[in-house]
Design goal:
Elements: H1 10-16, E1 19-24, H2 30-40, E2 50-54, E3 57-64, H3 67-77, E4 80-82
Antiparallel strand pairs: 1-3, 1-4, 2-3
């Protein structure tokens, strides 16, 4: 599969926005997403996030280039740090295997 010209790749997002916060998808309904979008105006959030599965739950990942912005987001909406190195590879790229890089949280 090839990427479309100019589109952000997953690797590009991980490099440019390394401070990532995973939220339960139940906290990302239409109304809540609008509130999060308004809160993030002026923050370093990437225009494109992604989703993951962990323990039969769907999580939405918000990506930030500045740690302070990610911390502000977490203080307001909750969630937990997501280390992109813990994402599975290949056909199961959307799985999160916590603890693979335990102790190497975003810094």
């Amino acid at each position: 599969m090839s990427a479309r010209k100019g589109e952000l790749t997953a690797a590009g997002i991980d490099r440019g926005w390394p401070f990532q916060v995973a939220l339960d998808s139940a906290l990302c309904t239409d109304k809540q997403t609008a509130i999060q979008d308004e809160f993030c105006k002026g923050l370093s959030r990437c225009v494109r996030g992604h989703s993951l599965c962990h323990d039969d739950k769907t999580l939405v990942v918000q990506c930030f280039s500045l740690k302070e912005d990610a911390e502000k987001f977490m203080a307001q909406f909750g969630g937990e740090w997501f280390d992109p190195r813990e994402r599975s590879r290949g056909h199961q790229w959307n799985k999160w295997y916590k603890g693979k890089f335990a102790g190497s949280k975003a810094s």
